[in-house]
Amino acid sequence: MVDTSVWSLALRRDPPLVLPHVTVLREALEREALVVTTGLVLQELLQGFAGPRARKDIIEHFGALPMISPTRADHIAAAELRNTCRRAGVQMGTIDALLAQLCIHHGLTLLTTDKDFSHAALHCPLKVWA
Q: Among 120, 99, 117, 104, which Cα is nearest to 42's?
């Protein structure tokens, strides 16, 4: 059984509502489990949607989620995480490395549709929901 009491949210696109990721997220929110996000995810979502209505809705809905912020140590560890993955042949972007590091630092399970995180998790203590 997956521990869904604490989640970090990193959905870069609006996936179809039938994805298991969406179901798990909806269930976690309905039972008031702790679901957290970060400003990085909020920024990526706002950059990906057009129109004032979508912007307003995203800001409003994400306002209900607690946000975690990276520290200087998180940035340093994210750089090392990215280097470790690169040496193992796994390409990881700067933002993805920081998101992964935030999850590792806070003991969070990452809920994402991005398969790059699953590849990275083979080389670091990142927990990705499967």
A: 99
